[in-house]
Amino acid sequence: MIGLRAQKKQETRQEISDQATRLFIERGFEATTIAEIADAARVAKKTVTNYFPRKEDLALDHHEAFTAGLAATVAGRAPGESALAALRAAFLGAASSHDPVIGFSGEPFARMIADSPTLTARLRELHELREEALAAVLAVETGTAPGDIGPRAAATLLGGAHRVLFREVMDLTLDGLGNDEIADRAVASASAVFDLLEPALGDYAVRDAA
Question: Which contacts (CB < 8 Å, 24+ apart) does range 11-15 have?
């Protein structure tokens, strides 16, 4: 159970994020200022930057879960399970629950990102950070020597699969499809994408069953 002070901070952070998202969708990301967000959330401008040092993170406020997600999935995989199998299962679960981390966001939000060069660039950066985090975990999990390119290569392939699937979810959202139909298509696409990787990575980073 969290204390009242911590709860108040969470509420303030959420209010800032909600107001920022509303303004970004209404006016566009580049056209909205931090001062306007602060006024809408009824906080000082410094409070906004204390909670969100980067303006982009006001819009992409799931960025920490996003960058850590693939690595966490691999680190928590079951005995006898490969990195690929764990990531496949996690993606299918996320698709069924319409998880924002894999791109489910609604058309207005997806349009906001697509129309903003700054947010598009930041999203590419987050994809790269996610792959770096995954590579670090794969290196540990496979006991790879420092400097070995294997974990980075595997992370690039696995991360690239997730980039492609994220883009598809966003594109289908922009096309006006509902979440259920997007999920159905994403599941089918995920099966095809992960099947392509199976010959190369099906036996990679399998957790010791013992």
Answer: 12/41, 12/43, 12/47, 12/51, 13/51, 15/41, 15/43
pLDDT the model gives residue 61: 84
When pLDDT is cut at 50, 70 and 90, the band that residue 2 belongs to is low
What is the pTM (predicted TM-score) of this model?
0.91
Query: Count of CB atoms within 10 A of residue 23's CB?
Result: 21
Amino acid identity for residue 2 in this structure: I
Where do the domains of the chain lie? 4-54, 63-201
**Domain 63-201, classified CATH 1.10.357.10, yes or no:** yes
